[in-house]
Design a protein that fits this description.
The complex is a heterodimer.
Chain A lengths: L1 E10 L2 E11 L4 E5 L6 H9 L6 E6 L2 E2 L5 H8 L2 E4 L11 H12 L4 H14 L15 H13 L5 E5 L7 H18 L2 E5 L3 H7 L2 E6 L2 E6 L10 H7 L3 H7 L1
Parallel strand pairs in A: 3-8, 3-9, 6-7, 7-8
Antiparallel strand pairs in A: 1-2, 1-4, 4-5, 9-10
Chain B lengths: L2 H15 L6 H15 L4 H22 L9 H40 L2 H7 L4 H39 L4 H9 L4 H27 L5 H31 L1
Helix pairs in contact in B: 2-6, 3-4, 3-6, 4-6, 4-7, 4-8, 4-9, 6-7, 6-8, 8-9
Classes of the chains: A alpha/beta, B mainly alpha.
């Protein structure tokens, strides 16, 4: 479980996050939604330690991540897997080397053990025959799957996904969403997804946090979102004609 | 941001490089790969420039020697000392600042804007140490060999040019390059080379590492890396020469 407690963060005197508190549950898909510039990416970056919080704290199963230094954070970071918006695969490495990378750097596994683990992860994301290809040789959807394989290589306790569907066609988006749900259930990870894809919200939304103007505006499930009574949330979720018709 | 905050960030960046590596074996392999990338791949351009510069130095020195009182073998001596003391360590390193420096800055800058560095940090890997330290060690180790090759090729280029154009006989040139040879000049050149290699890799990596934005900013970081490295090479060339030779 990840707990965000009264987190505030600003840049150059401008407040981006204000007193945000939320609990992200283990074994569930936790969504962070909000408009562009609402502060959701800053929140995720604070949670993984890419930004330091100005006040408040981030706790990983009771461990105060915010007050730790780089070395103290290492054990927690090794329990984190992250899928980046642009996949963030290492260009100079093959697909297999990308998946093996965290194992090579952070584990004591031998080469055959690492290869087996990488093969398992690649098969798990339905990419069994792309080991020797480079990221530039595969499609966007395949890159996302390789990035998921790399994220789960170390058996993470916490899985972050930053806009996992951005730049993907609707079919591939559904495949990626399903994969994330399956992995969350199978590995019992605490999965945190930063998204504004409404399909993801309705199919995966077990615990949704809506951020608006840097504040926690609403939280609930995908069923509750239809009757939230929150005008800002309604404006965001039901902005398109399709969503308005769906609601009717 | 003023110059002091840039300097502060640069030194903090330098300090982060020297934390304990996650896996020594991986770092060792990366050093060897970087030696290939920085050193072996630069061999062609270094040799090409050196041979022509040696040739030009020789012909121009003959052209400027108008007094019959000055023996012709002085041309060999001038070509040798110019290559060893100044041309090979300084000009070749300026060329490498352009080739290697821009490559390092754009590689690391692209990794920054495509979140590859964030990915390393989230894994708990010291990203600056992993990316920069092997480049720095490789450059410091391999560039002295490049400079030694440049010296040899440049002096040989001068001999070939003198022979082909007929401006200086081989015997005079060879006598000149052996005349009053000071081995310390090579040591002095090596000291300069190591300092310049450190400047090129550290400045270029620093520029790339703190790139923000997109492809435009990567290009700007790459340009800054070359300009700052080149200017600092010239300044340090003067400082080291003053300290050691004056």
């Amino acid at each position: 479980m990840i707990e965000v407690k009264n987190v505030s963060k600003g840049f150059n005197g401008k407040t981006i996050l204000e007193n945000v508190s939320h609990r992200f549950e283990k074994g569930k898909v936790n969504l962070i939604i909000g408009g562009s510039g609402s502060g959701k990416t800053v929140l995720v970056k604070c949670m993984v330690g890419l930004f330091e919080v100005d006040s408040g704290r981030i706790e990983y199963d009771g461990r105060n991540f915010s007050e730790m230094n780089f070395r103290e954070r290492k054990p927690i970071r090794q329990e984190i897997g992250m899928l980046f918006q642009g996949s963030a695969l290492f260009d100079s490495m093959t697909v297999e080397q990308n998946v093996m990378f965290p194992l090579t750097m952070l584990s004591d596994m031998g080469l055959s053990e690492r290869t087996d683990r990488a093969n398992f992860c690649l098969q798990r994301v339905n990419l069994p025959a792309s080991h020797k290809l480079y990221p530039s040789e595969i499609s966007g959807g395949m890159k996302k799957r390789v990035a998921i394989a790399r994220a789960i290589a170390m058996n993470p306790e916490y899985l972050y996904c930053d806009e996992p569907n951005s730049g993907l066609d609707p079919m591939t988006s559904i495949v990626i969403d399903e994969l994330i749900m399956e992995i969350t259930e199978e590995f019992q990870t605490c999965t945190v997804i930063n998204t504004h894809d409404m399909n993801s919200v309705f199919t995966m939304g077990e615990n949704i946090l809506f951020i608006h103007k840097g504040k926690k505006w609403w939280n609930g499930t995908s069923e509750q979102i239809f009757h939230s009574g929150n005008s800002e949330l309604d404006d965001f979720v039901f902005a398109s004609k399709i969503m308005q018709n769906l609601r009717k | 941001m003023n110059i002091f905050s840039h300097l502060g960030r640069y030194w903090i960046f330098m300090a982060t490089l020297f934390s304990k590596p996650e896996k020594i074996s991986v770092y060792r392999r990366r050093v060897i790969e970087e030696m290939e990338s920085i050193g072996v791949s630069s061999l062609g351009i270094v040799s090409l420039i050196s041979v022509f510069m040696g040739a030009v130095i020789t012909i121009q020195t003959v052209y400027n020697l108008v007094s019959p009182l000055v023996p012709l073998y002085i041309v060999g001596l001038v070509a040798r000392d110019t290559m060893i003391i100044e041309f090979s360590p300084t000009i070749i390193m300026l060329v490498l600042a352009g080739k290697v420096g821009s490559s390092i800055a754009s590689e690391i800058g692209t990794m920054r804007v495509t979140e590859q560095i964030d990915a390393l940090e989230i894994m708990g890997i010291n990203s600056s140490g992993y990316l920069v330290l092997p480049k720095m060690i490789a450059a410091i180790f391999i560039t002295p060999f490049l400079v030694l090759i440049s010296m040899f090729v440049g002096i040989a280029g001068g001999w070939v040019a003198g022979e082909l154009s007929g401006v200086i006989p081989s015997t005079d040139y060879i006598k000149g390059i052996q005349y009053e040879f000071l081995p310390f000049n090579v040591t002095f050149a090596m000291i300069k080379t190591v300092v310049f290699a450190f400047l090129i890799t550290s400045i270029s990596s620093f520029q790339g590492f703190y790139t923000q934005g997109g492809s435009l900013e990567v290009g700007q970081a790459s340009t800054r890396a070359v300009v700052y490295s080149s200017v600092l090479i010239l300044i340090f060339d003067y400082v080291i020469t003053q300290l050691i030779l004056a």
